[in-house]
C-alpha cells in the first residue's frame, strides 16, 4: 500500500515536471514569436526611412531642376538684353 502511494506521488511529480517543461517551451515559443514581430517592425521602420530618404532625394532633384530653369531664364534675359 505504501509503495503504491509512493509510486502515485512520484508519477504526480513527473507529470508536474512535464507540465512545467511544457509551460517553459510555450514561454520560449512566445518569446520567439515576439522576437519575430520585433524583427518585422524593424524591417517596416527601415522601409519607411528608405521611402522618406527617396522622397527627400526627389525633392532635392526637383529643387535642382527649378534652379536650372531659373538659371536658364536668367541667361535668356541676359541674351535678349
Give your account of this protein's structure.
The protein has one helix spanning 2-80. The chain is mainly alpha-helical. The protein is rod-shaped. The mean pLDDT is 95.
Q: What distance separates the N and C termini? A: 120 Å
Range of strand content: under 5%
Mean pLDDT level: 95
Shape: rod-shaped
- What ranges have pLDDT less than 50 throughout 5 or more consecutive residues? none
The secondary structure category is: mainly alpha
Sheet bearing the most strands, described?
none
Helix-strand pattern, N to C?
H
Count of DSSP strands: 0
How big is the Rg?
35 Å
Summed up, the helix count is 1
Main attributes?
1 helix; mainly alpha; 81 residues
Amino acid at each position: 500500500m505504501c509503495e503504491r502511494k509512493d509510486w502515485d506521488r512520484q508519477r504526480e511529480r513527473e507529470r508536474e515536471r512535464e507540465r512545467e517543461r511544457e509551460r517553459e517551451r510555450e514561454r520560449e515559443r512566445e518569446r520567439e514569436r515576439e522576437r519575430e514581430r520585433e524583427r518585422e517592425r524593424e524591417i517596416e521602420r527601415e522601409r519607411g526611412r528608405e521611402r522618406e530618404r527617396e522622397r527627400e532625394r526627389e525633392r532635392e532633384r526637383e529643387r535642382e531642376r527649378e534652379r536650372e530653369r531659373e538659371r536658364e531664364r536668367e541667361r535668356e534675359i541676359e541674351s535678349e538684353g
